[in-house]
Specification:
mainly alpha; ABC transporter transmembrane region fold; extended
């Protein structure tokens, strides 16, 4: 296990070093995502003000009473105007944050991908002719155009959610431990089970994914060979043979993708059952503690 983990850590370090010029942008994307959460919590506020204060006689929230003029806070029409203004303001802010986040994510991902592709292309040009004769040009093209996209998925779509999920897990465990230590222990027991399940399935996912990538690259190789020598193929009447060869390669790739998807389904099933087991334990212990008056 350790022999397999060390190359992974080295690979992750190299990817993080490749993304070093864009860490400021990645942090900005993460902060924009965090700021979108409190803005989302403000969405029901205008409706609450309209129902509770404009229609009914409940007072406005204290912070609005302090900043709004008294003439507006003591009349239903003024309160309704405040609710409408807040609705438009919150919607505009949410849209602006979404626009900024989308633009920053797209710009960072595309720049990161472009730099990575350029660096990989430069490296491929420095490799020996024997390498290109052995591997072929199609495999290199496939790696530059398709495999490099994993870089932006890892840095942009993976790192931020991972940090957010880790912080959420720690906070939830702390809150649960303060409420009931036994419930927290159940959560602690379930987490290593999920981790071990992930570690058990990771080599299988990697093996199946490599098989899919190789078969897809092989099918692209058939296309490049045939289309680059289409005159020779037509001259010798080999269209049907080449079509069958491409179909065989593509069909092998299709079944490889189906096996990969089936493997993912089995993994999701086990994760769901493990999570359901933890939820059932929490429900059992929580109900017993509530009935005993200790929770």
């Amino acid at each position: 296990m350790s022999k397999m983990q060390h190359p992974n850590l080295a690979l992750f370090r190299r990817l993080l070093q490749q993304a070093r010029p864009y860490w400021v942008h990645v942090v900005g994307i993460f902060l924009l995502g965090l700021l979108a959460t409190p803005l989302g919590l403000l969405t029901p506020l205008p409706l609450k003000i309209a129902i509770d204060s404009a229609i009914s006689a409940h007072p406005l929230p204290r912070f609005l009473s302090r900043i709004m003029p008294a003439s507006a806070t003591h009349s239903p029409a003024g309160i309704l105007a405040i609710a409408v203004f807040l609705l438009l303001a919150v919607t505009a802010l949410e849209s602006l944050f979404a626009l900024a986040n989308s633009f920053l994510r797209t710009w960072t991902a595309e720049k990161l991908l472009l730099d990575f592709r350029a660096r990989l292309f430069s490296h491929l040009q420095r490799l020996s002719l024997a390498y290109h004769d052995t591997r072929g040009t199609t495999d290199s093209v496939y790696r530059i155009q398709y495999d490099t996209a994993s870089m932006q998925y890892l840095i942009i779509d993976g790192l931020g959610p991972f940090i957010t999920s880790l912080v959420t897990l720690l906070v939830m465990f702390y809150v649960t431990f303060r409420i009931d230590s036994q419930l927290a222990m159940v959560a602690i027991i379930i987490s290593p089970l999920l981790y071990m399940l992930s570690m058990a399935y990771r080599p299988r996912f990697r093996r199946r994914s490599k098989e899919v990538k190789q078969l897809e690259s092989s099918a692209m190789g058939v296309l490049q060979e045939v289309l680059s020598a289409v005159r020779v193929v037509k001259a010798f009447g080999r269209e049907k043979h080449e079509e069958d060869r491409y179909v065989r390669k593509s069909q092998a790739g299709m079944w490889a993708r189906i096996r990969l998807d089936l493997l993912g389904g089995c993994y999701s099933l086990l994760v769901g059952l493990t999570t359901a087991l933890g939820t059932a334990c929490v429900l059992w212990i929580g109900v017993r503690h509530v009935r005993a008056g200790t929770l």
